[in-house]
């Protein structure tokens, strides 16, 4: 894959930044794409911009504000609280069709810039309740994209079977542990690095980090 080009679906968060480092290691040329859908905090876009600038990666920001028009939810509206889903319900952060749309647009971009590979940080292990993070969805979409554009894309999901602790481990393996820890944004309240510490995203990130630090100590 070393001689080929990849598009990374990039949000500036822990997972997609780890994927960006993974792609830089595995491909000759890497391009990042961020979707702007009026996220709660514009910091997410700024954070993504900063990271790609620092790494010298070409960065496309695509306007996807129509998503907010279609599906108001906790990530885009301040008046809807961020909550974990109750048993059998989807969490309030779920945006129906989000990954379907994002991955499809990433495919259009990949086709335009002649990139064969698409990389996304979705993962099934810490299953968030998002149906469009499942492996079967990604595989199905890969087939659909190839059929729709008569192309041979390969969608990569380096985090698909990793838990949060193992994702920190991968960042470490890629020499990006400190970078990911200090420069990425996971927090629903828009605070970079360790975040607010209170929202579900911060709690999940912190747990994974602590678990990994404990493992790392023992190495
Ligand atoms: Zn937070």
Topology:
Layout: E1 5-9, H1 14-26, E2 29-36, H2 43-55, E3 58-63, H3 66-70, H4 98-112, E4 117-119, H5 135-149, E5 154-156, H6 164-173, H7 177-183, H8 200-218
Parallel strand pairs: 1-2, 1-4, 2-3, 4-5
Helix pairs in contact: 1-6, 6-8
Bound molecules: zinc ion.
Please provide a written account of the structure:
The protein is α/β, with parallel strands linked by helices and 219 residues long. The protein has a single domain (5-218), classed as HUPs (Rossmann fold), CATH 3.40.50. 44% of the residues lie in helices and 11% in strands. It contains 8 helices and 5 strands. It has helices at 14-26, 43-55, 66-70, 98-112, 135-149, 164-173, 177-183, 200-218, and strands at residues 5-9, 29-36, 58-63, 117-119, 154-156. It has a 5-stranded parallel sheet with strand order 3-2-1-4-5, sandwiched between helices. The two termini are 31 Å apart. Zn(2+) binds at residues 187, 196, 199, 202. This is 7-cyano-7-deazaguanine synthase. Its EC number is 6.3.4.20. GO terms for molecular function: ATP binding; ligase activity, forming carbon-nitrogen bonds; zinc ion binding.
Keywords summarizing the entry:
219 residues; 5 strands; metal-binding; zinc; queuosine biosynthesis; ligase activity, forming carbon-nitrogen bonds
In brief:
With 219 residues, this protein is of the alpha/beta class.
